[in-house]
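User: Structure tokens for this complex, please. No commentary.
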Amino acid sequence: MTKKNQLTKESGLSRRSFLKGVGLTSAGLAVTSGGEIFAEASGDASVKIISPGGATITLEVNGKKHQLKVEPRETLVEVLRDRLHLTGTKIGCDRGACGACTVIVDGKNVTSCLMLAIDAEGKSIETIEGLEKEGELHPVQKSFIEYDALQCGFCTPGMIMSSKNLLDHNPSPNLADVKHAVRGNLCRCGTYPKVFQAVLAASKQNKGE
Amino acid sequence: MRWIGKDVPRKEGKDKVTGASRYIDDITFPDMLYGVTVRSETSRGILQRTVFEEGIPWEEFTQVTCKDIPGNNYVALIETDQPYLADGKINHPLEAVLLLAHPDKYLLQEARRKVSLEVDPLPPVYDIEESLNQKEIVWGKDNVFKEYLLEKGDIDQVWEKADHIIEGEYKTGAQEQLYIETNGIVAVANPEEGVTVWGSLQCPYYVHKALMALFDLPADKIRVIQTTTGGGFGGKEEYPSMIAGHAALLAWKSGKPVKLIYDRLEDLAATTKRHPSLTRHKMALSSEGKILGMEIDFVLDGGAYATLSSVVLSRGTIHAAGPYLCENVRVRARVVATNTPPHGAFRGFGAPQSIFALERHLDKAALQLNLSKEELRRRNFIQEGQLTATGQVINEKVSLADLMTKAMEKSDFQKKKEQFHSENKKNKYIKRGIGLSSFFHGAGFTGSGEAYLESMLGMEATKEGKIRILSASTEIGQGTNTIFSQIAAEALGIEYDLIEISVPDTALVPNSGPTVASRTCMIVGKLVESAAIQVKEILRQSGFLASTYSSSEFSKACQSYLDKFSQLRVFSKYKQPTNIKWDDQTYRGDAYGAYAWAVYVAEIKIDLRTYETTVEDFVALQEVGKVIHPTLAAGQIEGGVAQGIGYGLYEKVVWDKGQMINNQMTNYIMPTSADIGKIRVFFEEAPYAHGPAGAKGIGELPLDGVAPAISSAIENAIGLDIPEIPVTPETLHEYWVSRKVNS
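Assistant:
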């Protein structure tokens, strides 16, 4: 009996080729299995043709611009971690289910394992490394320490980014808002009750209460 | 006390909130290769051939099979049955057969898919019943890894005296630890320097021992370093020895550093889980509700290899009769082999399984005797001076009755019960219920385990005038580094910030034992305390430290001592208190140095349109000795309750041919922020003489009592006694529909 090794094979279509398809077809491109990419007759002049060798893009991370050559298949989290050495953003599942890789892109929470790096070009990316300003921790970070809203710490960067983004958009959240904001950030240590406390306290601090 | 009992900031807090902490996948080396594991995918059989398909430049890959192993092809732990790489025989569908390494991680994944294994299948065994029936013999002579018989009194003569004899059967499913950081190791290995591994792990010296056997190298040629670890819960107790071996074998053969990080799918499918269980109870009671006898048949599914199953079974066996006085007990306990990946350590370690069965059975008995669930337990709580099932005299005040009273008050139990009863009649779909559990958990290794371990801890002064703790006990989120610093600062009478913790690196720290069994605070914390006392004594006797001193005077004393003698380092070694006696042969004696006691109450809501159960309020009362850090301790309980809610309601491992098939975080469901209602935690403190500042163990306790309290509440809400967990909506629906058919 011969069996193929299928542990990482998801219905014959790898996650990355799927991602690649989604990411690029939305821009009017089709993807072949060989990795070559052809522009369809979309008539969109902004469509950029990427050769198999990769593309040079500029990523704006924590207010700083980085020019780098990436392959189309590389996800944002891979580029942040492997190329820019911003390893604070974590990979927990690599499939958008755990939230450990949460970063803020143009003011929205994004699971950076589900965004291709080339799709992040021209957008403003915030990561955990960008929160501390001139040696001063962000109020959410301070509050996480004060309320011990972390244990093993692996979900913490993502949890903090979701919390920070909540406060950016809603300075006076209630408990339900906080629960909602971090519902995509899984914490196996079960720090949720302390996260709720910490975020609510940080919102009060923000307002000088 | 200045530091004990205070909410000091977590030692590594700032690094964790800024993303500065370095976890295993954050570490890279120049010229590093990535590694992957090729697995069998057949449950049981004989490996005939490995086929490398075309289209991959195979010559670029480092390939390792069992033939490349320099030493012994087994993961050294208790038995020697589990191979690092299959040598012909396949015993479960995730059995590692071949290792590959390459600098391009994308090509590596592609290559793994292009390896086919030809296996002649043998008939497998998939569950406890099949294994017990010896449908096939898949391990040893009879499929039984380990059997214990625990006996007290004479159970056989009790049945004729009983007013009630109540029988029941209970099942618990596998549970995945689901640490958010998957398993991973980076290895550097060559014949000249030996083997060094960095990894996400709980027990550096377990890995050390395993690598010594695998490479047939002496202790000083193996070095194991723990990196910041993103959760363990038992899941990184024994399994990292496997990954460390694999990464090191690839590094050894390639001559390059190798990083082997499990993808989430692989981690879920291949690594250990909580043992599934099947428990049968037969209980004799008097008409007054006294338990006269318990006969318990407790069976765990161990998976394909022995791993830690015998020890898990031991804890489950000892906790099977619970914190109740019963003069006649027989527990027959077995852990059996199946062709699934081995089950292993998970917070609670066998106790959650046997306690679930007992607590559900007590509820059943209470209903039959027409007693309240509370009252039946109160009539049977063990008291100080009485004997447990193993014949251990309880030498401490047992606070269960007090805890029960407080739990009833805090949860407003009676009022809620009546309120729900009347509301449920009016509401067709929404049904609420309240339920409870009472239980205990022994801290530290079972029986003579701590005596055999002879744990050792070091403490040294640094040239900055600080004190550094040298310990192999790992920080995995539970707060080891913080509480050790508190205990040391308290005993030394200095600032908390003057305490440093060494990286757990086997080249630098002595073996303070594994980070398991709720032993870190009580056992190793005590070593911290005694080492601190020695340091203080040395400084005093050498004349550098006055009888009273400030922290800065203490620092200066350390520096002066180092100037003169160049080193100040002490070691303290664990000695079992002399009153603890255990007989491994008869399985009788003092099973644990101390117990934590608890009463938990769950309040739940069931929606009979979706069959979904939600925990709306949870009250957790426990007595754990002196609480070293109230916030950390509460965090341990809250986290344990959250995992317990998952165990009881959501977390179902779906098996197909010995393989977990819902191995994703989207279809293996753990609690999210949206699932966690109120968790109210209360501590009673009764200092334990042999713990640091009176502390006992705490970490595993909460896992024992949550699921039974929830199931008890479900029974209260809809009158359905569901004898298995998890009670997923599908399970609840099944029982609900069949009840309607039956009635």
